[in-house]
Design brief:
Number of helices: 15
Shape: globular
Strand content: 15-25%
CATH architecture of the largest domain: 3-Layer(aba) Sandwich
Radius of gyration: 23 Å
Structural class: alpha/beta
Number of strands: 22
Bound molecules: NADPH dihydro-nicotinamide-adenine-dinucleotide phosphate
Oligomer: single chain
CATH superfamily of the largest domain: Aldehyde Dehydrogenase, Chain A, domain 1
CATH class of the largest domain: Alpha Beta
Helix content: 25-40%
Number of domains: 2
Distance between the termini: 67 Å
Largest sheet: 7 strands, mixed
CATH topology of the largest domain: Aldehyde Dehydrogenase, Chain A, domain 1
């Protein structure tokens, strides 16, 4: 495939240094193509283009920007199959998942914010004979930094509201998954999107990401990634008083109460555990089950997990593809070993070598979905983010114990509760220290709702009005009649 290039001021460029990296298909181990290994120099060029494009873009009306978002959504929709194929190749996720989730959501992110802008009105406050108007201005040039698990999905989740509010952008996707961000740049070219408003700089996190966070003219940073990286981003950006949104890691609990109709709910619980090989920040990697139904749950869950079809992502029948890289496979395998050293018993799965995956070569980064029981809920395996297809099972004997176990982690991103009694589930959900809790469902996303984490899972919220707030500065204009 043709090499990927940076997208700066509406044109494709190699890195200033000419250095490149390779992007690899993790399911085959084959190099797909090269991408620029950019530096602060490339970030400076992109920022200059964004600053120059800023005045004209921010002078457009909200209606004009909404029309642009619809145009981009239309163009992405036309290319949905290409996007799904590129995403599947770059991440190793099944093509069916890439179509259903990644390609579809990238379109709906633009569509949603286009419509949301139309419905959004600002409040007016009158008091003491004066009228207060809330006025929004763009933040300016914003930096968007995104991870590899849902590459275009998460990038467009930031790009759409940033554009809607009149900002210009310097974005950096993960160097492991640059393909669909590059395709977005091509789509913007195709629809003649104004030059310099959206700029893309590829490369390594500590080089390009760090340069974006450090650049004094980039006034806001929206970052999604791991907690350790989030700490570096926060430490760099905070003294510069940049606007900062951090969407970080998770170690989410799936809580199964004693009245849960297991036959009906098992598919949802398995999906919450293993979608995208467990590489969704919202996946439930700790399954807490009432001791009264633990044995029955375990039998049904292990049976369902053992039947997940793992294999070639290009095959329509594949449910679980590879993980993101050989390095990540090694990391996940080290946690499976750690779990056993900590006293856990592997009920299904384990290392790839124990259970070779049909139809793929040894160069692919494959793992069977793995379930471990017998671990303390405070063990490292049960509290550290593995971000792979590994789930631990833990019985509890009271709701209070389940709440304490669910909250016994430094993370607080998401959780789910499964019960026949929705009022009981709703009451339980309020005790979880997380940004989102689902009752009898998972990854059910209404894009108007706040999204984000507590504790080490992040700072700030995005989604609906929260995204508009992040990507704008508010000025209160108080008008008194003379
Ligand atoms: P990383 O934190 O490693 O990377 C995220 C992004 O930050 C990448 O683009 C990376 O570049 C970049 N980066 C790395 N170092 C720096 C730096 N010093 N300054 C600025 N940017 C930098 O996360 P992963 O890509 O490994 O993604 C997995 C993590 O993302 C998991 O912890 C997961 O939970 C979290 N996540 C959170 C979500 C949420 O909404 N809360 C959603 C999805 C994932 P490069 O890849 O080139 O190193």
């Amino acid at each position: 495939m043709e090499p990927i290039l940076n997208f700066i001021n509406g044109e494709f460029h190699p890195s200033a240094s000419g250095m490149t990296l390779e992007t690899v298909n993790p399911a085959s181990g084959q190099v797909i193509t090269t991408l620029p290994r950019s530096s602060a120099e490339d970030v400076a060029m992109a920022t200059k283009a964004a600053l120059e494009a800023g005045p004209a873009w921010s002078a457009t009306t909200m209606e004009e920007r909404m029309a642009w978002l619809h145009r981009i959504a239309d163009a992405l929709e036309e290319e949905a199959e290409t996007i799904a194929q590129l995403e599947s190749m770059d991440t190793g996720k099944p093509i069916s998942l890439a179509r259903r989730v990644d390609a579809a959501r990238s379109v709906s992110n633009f569509r949603f914010f286009a419509n949301f802008g139309r419905d959004h009105t600002e409040p007016i406050f009158s008091d003491h004979g004066a009228v207060n108007h809330v006025h929004r201005s763009p933040v300016g040039c914003v930096g968007l930094i995104t991870p590899w698990n849902l590459p275009l999905y998460l990038l467009t989740w930031k790009v759409a509201p940033a554009l809607l509010m009149g900002n210009t952008i310097v974005a950096k996707p993960s160097e492991l998954t640059p393909m669909t961000a590059n395709h977005l740049a091509k789509v913007l070219t195709k629809v003649h999107f104004p030059k310099g408003v959206f700029n893309l700089v590829h490369g390594l996190g500590p080089e390009v990401g760090q340069a974006i966070v450090e650049h004094p003219d980039i006034r806001g940073i929206s970052f999604t990634g791991g907690t350790a990286t989030g700490k570096i981003v926060a430490a760099t950006a905070a003294p510069m008083f940049k606007k900062l949104s951090l969407e970080l890691g998770g170690k989410n609990a799936t809580v199964v109460l004693d009245d849960a109709p297991l036959e009906e709910m098992m598919d949802g619980i398995v999906r919450a555990s293993f979608t995208n090989s467990g590489q969704v920040c919202l996946c439930g990697s700790r399954v807490l089950v009432d001791a009264a139904i633990y044995d029955r749950f375990k039998t049904m869950f292990v049976d369902a997990v053992s039947n997940i079809v793992v294999g070639d992502p290009a095959s329509e029948s594949t449910v679980m593809g590879s993980v993101i890289s050989k390095d990540h496979q090694t990391k996940v395998e080290s946690y499976i070993e750690l779990g056993q050293q900590e006293g856990g018993v592997v009920l299904t799965g384990g290392s790839a070598t124990d259970a070779p995956v049909k139809g793929v070569t040894a160069q692919g980064a494959f793992l069977r979905p793995t379930v471990i029981e017998g671990l303390s809920h405070t063990s490292r395996t049960a509290t550290e983010e593995i971000f792979g297809p590994v789930v631990t099972l833990h019985p509890f004997t009271s709701e209070q114990e389940a709440i304490d176990m669910a909250n016994a982690t430094e993370y607080g991103l998401a959780g789910s509760v499964w019960t026949a009694d929705t009022a009981r589930g709703y009451a339980f959900a309020q005790h979880l220290d997380t940004g989102i809790v689902w009752v009898n469902t998972w990854l059910n996303r209404d894009l108007r709702t706040p999204f984000g984490g507590v504790k080490q899972s992040g700072v700030g919220r995005e989604g609906g009005a929260w995204s508009l707030n992040f990507f704008s500065e508010l000025t209160n204009i108080c008008v008194q009649q003379p």
